[in-house]
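in:
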């Protein structure tokens, strides 16, 4: 008889509770976990503590950098200089917990919020943390330009969109100052075919962006032989649109195939969660 069978019998009508206790004692450690419990243990929300959830490593790194303990001390062990005892015992940095995509730090006796990875506190409110995440993967260099693919000069226009978030917070990852955020780079290869001419006209709409924001767009053409033609650059305020037409004349009458590069960068003004759209006419 299995111990589980014996326990079932002992629990039947008319049996003494002491019998249950004795059986339970004799069974303890003598048999594996019943199959039903084993299945629940395997399927249930048991987390391997050696495998942190997403975000935990960055938070722990942030706390290490800030010199704060892993866990907030209780009131009986006030650790001054930590986010829950910043300047005085019990004076917790708002909002009293680490908000999304951010970590609270106590610098001197002042509370600060630091944003994790590519998250931004665009609205300046601590309670919702660094609420906006930039377009990923980051494409803020010509070498990491977002690839819009390839078209022929007889092909249709290509469209894209993006965000230029910024904030007044310190960021844990360089650049730590993101007052104007990161730039966005794009590239598009245009094949020169007979019957059409390589045009490469870029139209950018800043329609949703506040008027106090200044955005600069810069573009150039890299011929397939590797030579780079002159850059063109223009700035416009939020609400406006702008057009760039970089030279694509790699040859006098030959093959002008090449790659259009485009950079969009916030130059100044308030932080905004609103994005831009762009269209490239090949
Ligand atoms: Ca916020
Ligand atoms: Ca972006
Ligand atoms: Ca052509």
């Amino acid at each position: 008889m299995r111990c589980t069978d014996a326990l079932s019998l002992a629990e039947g009508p008319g049996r003494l509770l002491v019998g249950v206790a004795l059986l339970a004692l004799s069974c303890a450690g003598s048999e594996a976990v019943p199959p039903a419990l084993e299945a629940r243990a395997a399927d249930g929300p048991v987390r391997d503590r050696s495998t942190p959830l997403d975000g935990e490593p960055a938070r722990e790194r942030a706390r290490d950098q800030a010199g704060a303990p892993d866990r907030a001390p209780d009131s009986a062990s006030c650790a001054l200089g930590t986010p829950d005892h910043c300047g005085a015992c019990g004076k917790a940095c708002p909002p009293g917990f680490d908000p999304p995509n951010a970590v609270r730090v106590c610098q001197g006796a002042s509370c600060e919020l630091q944003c994790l990875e590519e998250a931004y506190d665009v609205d300046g409110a601590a309670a919702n943390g660094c609420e906006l995440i930039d377009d990923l993967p980051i494409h803020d260099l010509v070498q990491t330009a977002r690839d819009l693919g390839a078209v022929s000069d007889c092909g249709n226009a290509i469209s894209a969109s993006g965000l230029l978030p910024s904030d007044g917070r310190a960021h844990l990852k360089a650049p730590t100052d993101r007052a104007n955020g990161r730039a966005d780079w794009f590239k598009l290869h245009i094949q020169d075919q007979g019957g059409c001419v390589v045009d490469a006209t870029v139209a950018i709409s800043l329609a949703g962006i506040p008027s106090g924001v200044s955005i600069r767009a810069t573009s150039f053409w890299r011929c397939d032989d590797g030579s780079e033609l002159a850059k063109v650059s223009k700035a416009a305020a939020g609400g406006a649109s702008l057009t760039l037409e970089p030279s694509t004349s790699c040859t006098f009458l030959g093959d002008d195939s090449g790659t259009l590069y485009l950079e969009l960068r916030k130059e100044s003004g308030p932080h905004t969660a609103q994005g831009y759209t762009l269209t490239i006419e090949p």
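note: The chain has three domains: 3-43, 56-133, 142-281.
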